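Re: weekly structure request thread

Next one in the queue (234 aa):
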Amino acid sequence: MDDEIPLGPAPTGWADEPLCRYMDDWRRNQLATFQTCQAAFRRLQTIDSLFLTIADNLDNTPQTAPALFFYRAHASYRTAVGLAMAGQVVEAYPILRNCLEQGLYAYFVFKQPTRYNVWATRHDSPASLRAVKDVFQIGDILNEYTSDHNDDGRIAHELYEQTIDWGAHPNTHGLMQTVTLEHTSDAMEVVTQYLYPGTLAHASAMKDTARIGVGVLIAFGHIFEPKYALFREG
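Done, posted below.
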């Protein structure tokens, strides 16, 4: 954007706000992850570059509706990268689920374009809302994808369940991975953290972000196969 405001010193009062200081910690963790986890970051960056290449070459695609899902999937992927790098290891997973669902919904619509009309009219009436809920069942979507592409679908199903387990829903794995118990002679203190950098959970979130990014690109590859073929030839 030509009118983008250049970054400079933090505005007056920023450091006085706990929320703003938290965001500073968030950013410092991202920078530290970039510095100390170069291999993991480069994987994420490579995946992002593939998203960008496809995004820049979807002009005149006949698959207009799936293309809209593609851009949202890329935005979700980038958000998940930022959360994972910041050490928000639980909060990354709802976004990763969204990223994966964008790809799966796109494939579902691609296989039967009339489904897009059902999806697009969700808010027209109570009956339309019921129709969307009936048609767009994630289990059915995953099953159709798996039926068409067994290995890719099986992996997508596994990744989807992992997002649920590790934070996309309030489950014990997600909740407890940032909790520690500190014992004293007469008490036990439960300690939980919002940011959890430099831990196994942090590394796992980075890895899962990469895996889901690749899985989503594969799903879109089944939709935009002619475009992908051009990239392979190039």
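The first strand starts at residue 179 and ends at 183. The mean pLDDT is 92.
Next request, please.
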